[in-house]
Every structure is written in C-alpha cells, then in structure tokens.
Design a protein that fits this description.
Blueprint: H1 24-37, E1 41-43, E2 45-47, E3 50-52, E4 58-63, E5 66-75, H2 79-98, H3 101-116, H4 120-131, H5 135-162, E6 171-179, E7 183-187, H6 193-205, E8 209-213, H7 219-231, E9 239-241, H8 246-253, E10 259-265, H9 268-280, E11 290-294, E12 299-303, H10 309-321, E13 331-337, H11 341-352, H12 373-388, E14 392-396, E15 400-401, E16 407-408, E17 411-415, H13 421-424, E18 431-437, H14 442-451, E19 455-456, E20 458-462, H15 466-475, E21 482-485, E22 502-503, H16 514-518, E23 521-529
Parallel strand pairs: 1-5, 7-8, 7-10, 8-9, 10-11, 12-13, 12-20, 13-18, 17-18, 20-21
Antiparallel strand pairs: 2-3, 4-5, 6-23, 14-17, 15-16, 19-22
Helix pairs in contact: 1-4, 2-8, 3-5, 4-5, 4-7, 5-6, 10-11
This protein binds nicotinamide-adenine-dinucleotide (NAD).
Length: about 550
C-alpha cells in the first residue's frame, strides 16, 4: 500500500488476568500446564527456513522446581551453524528492510493478538514450568509485558518515522530511519520471557535482521515466542535462533565484519566482556556496532523516619521475594531508620512467615525455585557467609534445599556493617539485606546508599514529608535509572516506566521506549532542491568584489 499515511492502533497496556479460583483463565492454564508437563519438546536451531536438530549436540531443559523433570531437549549450535545463521540473516535483511514499515509493524501487532489469545496459556505455562514463575509472575511477564512491547514499539516506531526536519522555501528535507546494515546480535537473560523476545524483535521492527541467542534455561518459553512470530508472518531469516556454548556463538558473531549491533540484557561481567571484544575487533567492522546493554543491579529501598511502616514492609516483601528475587529490579538492600526498625522487623518476619515456596503449579505458592544449580550454590554461598559473619545476622529464613528443586527460603539479613558484601554485591536470589541507621544520620546514610555499590538500576524511597522526598530524590539522583517514591522498586510497565539504569547497570537505553528503538536505526537525511543553483558566485563577489 503505497498511497497511504497510516496511523497505528493506539497502544493500551494488556489487562492482567487474575487466575482466581474458578476463573476460566485458571482452568485453561491448568490444562496447558498438564499438557506441557507431559510433553518433551525438541527445540531446534532456527536458521532461515531450516529447523536443525542434531542428536550429537543435544542438551536438556529441566524444571527448576523439579530438576528430574526434563521438559525439552535443544540442539547446541556449532561455529558453522552460527556462520550459516549470519549468512541467512544477511540474505533476508534487504527485503525485510525494504518493506513498508507498516508491513513489518503488522507482524508484531498480529503476534500481540496471538499472545493475547490462544498462545497466552501456552507461553505462560512454558514460563511457569521452565523458569519457575507463579501464574501471576508469568502473566505479567510472558503475556502482558511481551504484548505491551509489541504494541507500544509499533507506536514508537511510527513516532520515529514521523519526526521530520523543517524545509526552507524551495526545498524539501526528509529524514529516513534506515534499519542497520548487517546483523544485530541479541543475547538474552533467563529471567524475563518478555525481555528475551523483545531483544530480537525491537531491532527487527526497525528493519534489522537478528541473530538471537536466548539463555538455555529459558528456552522453552523463547521457542514458543519463535513459533508465535512465525505464525504472525515473520519471514524466514529475519530472526535466527541459535543456542549453545555462548563462547562459541560469540566468537563467530563478534568477529564478523557485518556486526551492526548488540542488544544485550544480563550480567555486567558478560556485557563488559562483549564490549571489550568489540573494542579489540573494531578494525574489522564495516560500521560502528551499536552497543545496548541492560545489566546488573543492587537495588535499594531507603526509608525515612516519616515512612509508613506497613507500606514499607509490603514494598520490601514484594520487591525482594517475588520471582525468588531474580528480577534485575528486585529490592536487595534496604536502609531503615532506627525509630522504625522494631515495627518493620516485626512486620517483615510476620509476613515472611506466610510465604509458601514450592511448585508454581500449586497456586498457594508465592515463590518457586531459583533457576539452576549454579544460581542455587551462589545464593547459598551468600547465606552461609552471613550465618558465620560477625558483620551480619540472619533475622529470617536461610534454609536451602536442592533435593527436588532449587529451593531457597526468603531470607532477610541484618548487616551490622553497611559495607558488608551482601549490601554491595548482586546476589540475584531471595535475599534481602538491611542496614539500620541512626535517624540523625540521614545525609551520611544517603551518601552510603549512593556510593557503596557500583550499580544504579532501581531504587525506592519511602517518606511522607514532602521536603524530605525532594531532598532524598536529589541526593540519589544518579543512584537509579528507575526511581520510585513510596512504591516497591520492581514492576515497571511498558509505556509507563521506561526501564534501564546507569553506572554498572547498563547503557540506559530504556527498553520499551522510543529511545531504545532509536538505537536500531541509522538516519539518512535527504535534501531535495527545487531551484538548483546555476552560478557558483556569492553576492559579495559581485562587481569584482569592489564597493
Ligand atoms: P548472564 O549474564 O549469566 O547471561 C545472560 C546471557 O549471556 C545468557 O544468554 C548467557 O548464555 C549469555 N552469555 C554468557 N556468557 C557469554 C559469552 N561469553 N558470550 C555471549 N553470551 C554469553 O545473566 P542471567 O543469569 O541470564 O541473568 C541475570 C542477570 O541479568 C542479572 O545480572 C540481572 O541483573 C540482569 N538483568 C538485567 C536486566 C536489566 O534490565 N538491567 C533485566 C534482566 C536481567
């Protein structure tokens, strides 16, 4: 359709379904959980039209809360497979980029409808079984946030394409937002199905082709995403799915002259390594690769003596323990004034006692298991350290059991030293460390909060006095990219709280916003003159330059 100036459907956040007892969505989800639990999926590499299965490089996908339960097998890519995937990306790119942007947008609008409809229980069940999310955590991530990414990104793309320069008389200036030449390498974390699928699809919407590397531990839901995109009409080769040894995949992708960008979410260490490798290879590339990385966090909650203790307790419990604390935004350190501490401590312990941990298919559970054995041992290490340290004491939880699944009870540590390691380092598990400060030392403690961790992803303050809120907001200006006032630091919604942090937490390109999409296009400015000049001389040169 060439003769049209389209406007995209106005995006609205997908309503979150409640899964209350007796609700139709709950019974559909339970049926789907049983179906998937009884199936073993074979996850292939997806390279252009080809679905490659290779028994020789096969690995298992298991349920974190029942690690004896194998959900799927996947084929690990060899270096040759990765080369083939990149060639296929490059072959598909031109035609994809040359489509009207509305045609690309329609693929993702259709995918949003599929996810809101028949695929909703499928992707939610895959996220519950494969990543150990409860029905609510799966619903807000795999269904709603992903649908929101698709619908809002289409709207943001429209705004980018309509942003045009001025034209002086006799000319027409235009700005064309071209998709990047080459391929984008999308490397994903395990913890959000929506992020894992947004990382390849945001650049694809803007006309890029993408080599997509999901985390092996979230492959079950990622592969549902691939199937949704295919059903929505995404042409083969625009997004190729490769998984396997990340070092092998990265060594091919980062050495390739056509690398146009990296869209990464994961830990700071891995992103630093990717960035360094790009630096070492800089002379090989045809273009400067765009580097977008959202990385680790040590997210804080800072309470003022004027805070409401009950609101604070609820914010801490939900912020720290939902999805087992494996959200990049999870509250993992808190600063509590001495005057509030007795009420807060009693409230935290009383609430944490009510939390049930177990299989998310049992709807009475608030928490599932942590993702894998490596995460289990890392988190347990921090808890064991607190058990024997003179600088810390455990005030709730501390039990870890990996016999059936990788279960860790919600754990609350009181740090006696504000620089104790669990106040500074990212743990990525259900562990909240608190430091109780002297009410008279507000400013010193704000400075501690600002400086004691290298990260700056999310943070929350709780206070009632407006002057104090303004003061704390200023003092913590660079401590968080997503800052909350009297609310928990998790639960950012696409289109409402664009997400990302600074310092060691990433490039802060704000996933789910127009700013992120700008990184996946390169503008061509077009000036067309309607009165081309015919004389090289300027007015000041007339009459031979004499007065
Ligand atoms: P991770 O860094 O261990 O893994 C992320 C991805 O990098 C995975 O796909 C992994 O296979 C891959 N990877 C590992 N080594 C690699 C290599 N040599 N080359 C290429 N890829 C490699 O992170 P994770 O455990 O999956 O996720 C948790 C981390 O992600 C936490 O640090 C968390 O804070 C962060 N996170 C940040 C955000 C954010 O928006 N800032 C969102 C979600 C998660």
């Amino acid at each position: 359709m060439a003769n049209i100036r389209s406007t995209t459907p106005t995006p609205r956040n997908e309503p979150v379904l409640g899964y209350a007892p007796g609700s139709p969505e709950r019974s559909t989800l339970i049926t789907e959980l049983k179906r998937q639990a009884g199936t073993r999926v074979e996850i292939p590499l997806v390279i252009g039209e080809k679905k490659i299965l290779n028994a020789k490089t096969e690995h298992k996908v298991v349920s974190p809360h029942k690690h004896a339960h194998q959900l799927a097998t996947y084929t690990a890519a060899t270096a040759e497979d990765v080369q083939a995937a990149i060639q296929s990306n490059l072959a598909a790119r031109k035609e994809w980029a040359a489509l009207n942007w509305e045609d690309r947008a329609a693929v993702f609008l259709k995918a949003a409808e599929l996810l809101a409809g028949k695929y909703r229980p499928v992707i939610n069940a895959a996220t519950m079984l494969g990543q150990s999310k409860t029905s609510h955590q799966a619903e807000i991530d795999a269904a709603c946030e992903l649908i929101d990414f698709f619908r809002f990104n289409v709207h943001f793309a429209e705004r980018i394409y309509s942003e045009q320069p001025q034209s002086a008389p006799g000319m027409w200036n235009r700005s064309e937002a071209r998709g990047l030449e080459g391929f984008v390498y999308a490397v994903c974390p395990f913890n959000f199905t929506s992020i894992a699928i947004n990382l390849p699809t945001a650049p694809a919407l803007m006309g890029c082709s993408v080599l997509w590397k999901p985390a092996p531990t979230s492959l079950l839901s990622a592969y549902v995403g691939m199937q949704v995109l295919e059903e929505a009409g995404l042409p083969p080769g625009v997004i190729n799915l490769v998984v396997g040894d990340p070092a092998v995949i990265s060594s091919v992708a980062l050495a390739h002259p056509d690398l146009a960008g990296i869209h990464f979410t994961g830990s700071t260490g891995v992103f630093n390594m990717l960035w360094k490798t790009v630096g070492q290879n800089i002379d090989r590339y045809k273009t400067y690769p765009r580097l977008v990385g959202e990385t680790g966090g040590k997210d804080f909650v800072f309470a003022h003596p004027s805070a409401n203790a009950q609101e604070l307790v609820t914010g801490l419990i939900r912020g720290a323990f939902e999805f087992q604390g494996q959200k990049c935004s999870a509250a993992s350190r808190a600063y509590i004034p001495k005057s509030l501490w007795p009420a807060v401590k009693d409230g935290l312990v009383a609430t944490a006692e009510q939390i049930k941990v177990g299989d998310p298919a049992d709807f009475s559970n608030f928490m599932g298991a942590v993702i894998d054995q490596k995460a289990f041992h890392k988190i347990k290490g921090y808890i064991d350290d607190a058990k024997q340290s003179k600088d810390a004491r455990i005030i709730f939880g501390g039990d870890c059991d990996d016999k059936v699944g990788y279960f860790i009870q919600p754990t609350i540590i009181e740090a006696l030293d504000p620089h104790y390691r669990s106040m500074r380092e990212e743990i990525f598990g259900p562990v909240l460390t608190l430091y109780v400060y002297d009410d008279a030392k507000l400013d010193e403690t704000l400075a501690l909060c600002d400086t004691s961790s290298p990260y700056a992803l999310t943070g929350a303050i709780y206070a009632r006095d407006r002057r104090v809120i303004a003061h704390m907001t200023r003092a913590l200006e660079h401590s968080a990219g997503n800052f909350y006032i009297n609310d928990k630091p998790t639960g950012a919604v696409v289109g409402q709280q664009p997400f990302g942090g600074g310092r060691a937490s990433g490039t802060n390109d704000k996933a789910g916003s127009i700013w992120n999409l700008l990184r996946w296009c390169s503008h061509r400015t077009i000036k067309e003159t309607f009165h081309p000049i015919t004389d090289f001389r300027y007015a000041y040169m007339e009459n031979g330059g004499s007065a």
